[in-house]
Design brief:
two-stranded antiparallel sheet, 2 helices, single chain, about 140 residues
Length: about 140
């Protein structure tokens, strides 16, 4: 079969573009996995830091009652802050993590390779643009 040279050039160009698109898709899949792991680690760190602050309440027994009361209040305040951060991050990230879970499971081999990854049941994620979330910091999306 004879292929005209311009058709062959188009065929080669399409192959190159397909390869580039495939590489971009693979990088995005890897980024989804890495981002989910980073979110998991942040939540685990908040839990650990909360427990650490609670342990600090009893770490300075040789101080006056007034100082002990102040140190205890500070440690409890910091533990409460870590709990609040954990709750806030969990709430803000839950929609994205739920939506990414089928893809991550497939990439990690938890689901069969031939299973289709669909995001229809995960719900929508709304991104806020502007200064609506400045007071709380963190992410710019809501469920």
């Amino acid at each position: 079969m004879f292929i005209h040279s311009s058709q062959f050039c188009i065929f080669l160009a399409l192959r190159v573009e397909w390869a580039k698109a495939k590489a971009r898709a693979d990088r995005w899949e890897e980024e989804v996995v890495l981002l989910d792991e980073e979110m998991r680690r942040v939540l685990a760190f908040c839990e650990w830091k909360n427990a650490w602050w609670k342990e600090q309440v009893t770490q300075r027994p040789a101080v006056s009652p007034e100082v002990d009361e102040g140190l205890s209040a500070y440690a409890q305040e910091q533990a409460a802050m870590e709990t609040a951060l954990n709750v806030s991050f969990t709430r803000k990230w839950s929609a994205v993590r739920t939506r990414a879970r089928p893809l991550i499971n497939k990439l990690m081999g938890i689901e069969p390779v031939d299973a289709d990854v669909t995001m229809e049941d995960a719900g929508d994620v709304e991104f806020l643009i502007g200064e609506e979330d400045d007071e709380g910091g963190g992410s710019d999306y809501e469920e």
